[in-house]
Amino acid sequence: MANLIITIDGPAGVGKSSTAKKLAQKLDAAFLDTGAMYRAATLTAMQSGCKLDDIAALEKIIDATNFKFQITGNQMTVKINDTDVTEQIRDTNITDNVHFIASAPSLRQRLVKMQRQLASEQRKIVTEGRDQGTVVFPNADYKFFLTADAAKRTKRRADELAQKGIKVDAGKLQQDIEKRDDSDRNRSTAPLVPAKDAVIIDNTTLTLEQTVNKIMELIKH
User: What b/e readout covers 15-40, taking b as 16+ CB neighbours within 10 angstroms?
Assistant: First the structure.
């Protein structure tokens, strides 16, 4: 296992990935994008044509798939059966269906195993997700939980998509984010909650740089 593990959890659109990536750069640590791993599993499930609520079938599909997650510098590349899908997994259709994988205990266990394996290969790691501090790395050196109001998170996600040339309906996007929040918080397996020993940071009024600096200050102390 890595000598230094920092977990950053929180709801959709709160800036977990951007914060974790920038923090990893400052600490010369690897960045573990767990969301990409769930998206890869979701893409595999969708490409199979299998019903996404057929857990038994999905278990077989995921077990038979060769996933390769590689961290190079501060970027994680994702391959499914030797095909690079790093960009493809960001499609909004994937986002809309991730909850099928995330809410199934047996499928989450498979992803958690992959996450721990990847972390064991790194010297220092910053990992983000929804259950990193509570389930995946309960003994992490530092745990943070980011939060922000839904309107702010919607704007951030819309801006992020706009930079990729993707236009979205802000109203529908906020509804989707709030729906995802409810799904994450109320699922029976690894619900979205702060770890008891996590530091909660509301970054509604903070910039990305300010959020990262606040975490850096807390780590130093």
Answer: bbbebbbbbbeebebbbbbbbbbbbb
Question: Which residue type, as a one-letter code, is found at position 62?
Answer: I
What is the length of the chain? 221
Pairing of strands 75-80, 67-72: antiparallel
Q: Where are the domains of the chain?
A: 4-203
Q: What is d(CA 177, CA 24) in angstroms, rounded to the nearest whole number?
A: 26
34, 132 Cβ separation under 8 angstroms: yes
CATH number of 4-203: 3.40.50.300
Both tokens of residue 38? 């769930």
Q: How many CB atoms lie within 10 A of CB 141?
A: 13
Query: pLDDT digits over 31-61, tens only?
Result: 998 889 999 999 999 999 889 999 999 999 9
Q: Quick check: 9 and 137 in contact, CB under 8 A?
A: no
Q: What contacts 77, CB < 8 A, 6 or more positions away?
A: 69, 70, 84, 86
pTM: 0.86
If one counts every other C-beta atom within 10 angstroms of the C-beta of residue 148, the result is: 22
